[in-house]
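Quick check before the chapter quiz. The format below is the same one you will see on the exam, so make sure you can read both the input and the output lines.
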Amino acid sequence: VQQGTTDHKQWYQRRVRGKTMVDMIHMKIARLFVLLVFVSLSTLPIACAQRERFNIVDFGAVGDGKTINTIPIQKAIYAASQVSGGGDVFIPSGGVFVTGQVRLLSHVHIWVDTNAELYASDQPQQYQCISSITTDSGPCDYPVIYAENATNIALKGYGSINGGANDPPNHLVLSYNATTNFITPVEFNFTGCAGYSCRPKLVVFKNCNKIEFKDLTLKNSPMWTNDLVQSNDILIENVTVVGDRNWPNNDGFDIIDSNNVIIKDSLISTGDDCIAIIAHSSLPCSNITVINTQLYSTSAAIKLSSFDKNSTGDVYNLLFNNITILNTNRGICIDPRWGTGNIYNATFSNLQIQTQYFSDPWWGSSEPIYITSMSMDDQHPWTGAVYDINFVNITAVSENGVVLYAQDKPLQNILFENVDVTIWQYTEYSRSTRDYRP
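Here is the expected output.
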């Protein structure tokens, strides 16, 4: 009984309510797993007759690592879109096919075969401005692969799509600071770009439905690797995303104002956030499940945020289960900073977390769990709320502790059950225990 409390009946009632809340959380996790199975089945393509294959070589593509194949690949995509039910654009084994920006059309799947690679061109004229809703990073995106208002699209296969960031070594690198282990990238001379948006993103899908990523490796993106904007019914399965750990802004998956998303059985290793789920408009970002996945980041492994002047949509109904987070700066990061969107009804269960200090250019301070409620600054206010966040069966080893900080609005209904945090310093960095950069 708390000191000074003499009413044992009130204490007992509070304890019963607490146990009831925990039981409700366990029931919620079970229901979310049922939802996961249902959404998985509804998201997977329906088995049908074998799809027609369109080999890009037949359209004039040359896999010599030099020839730019933008036009042949776009011709293959168009041809595949014209057959009933769509077709597969086939990237054959053994070749490195350089490409500029291509647009994926409805019912077209790109299949990158084993030992095949699509490699992003470093020529600025190969990219056009695609209007962006993320006003914090400029008015334009310059993706290698993009789709807009498309249905039933996919990136599959056992090959890779390579953005070329520091591959080969020093490619697209302006400078490297050996003291801080921080790369300053080359910014492209794109028309209309601003700030760090002057680099190509690897994939941008906007206003699309029924998206699938399967078995593929996506690597070395100069900017965000996969940007999924205002899209629905997304399955990401057995995918590897790898970016240089010293390269800024190369997030693994940015899920923006999108719904019904599953990430499973995957590995993501990046310099910036592995998975960022962010409200950027009036649309919600909801029903997102991440399971059986390994995450490594010099920033945050998992980030939930509201960050845009137009962010009025909520982020909610999220499940993260059976996830391993290693060699990472921040483990779980919930940090709305701009707009009015709320973040609620998120459950993190059965997680193994190991976080550590990195050099000062990287935001974060080795927090295994970091939840803040505050505005970015006077020009970027946030007035939403964070509530109903659950942490169940979490084991963490870290150089810092759990941070809960409310500046503008109190955090509400944050549950910790069976959470074990071991703190000890094992890197050479000396850092503040508080870093409120998002």
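If your answer matched, good. The radius of gyration is 22 Å.
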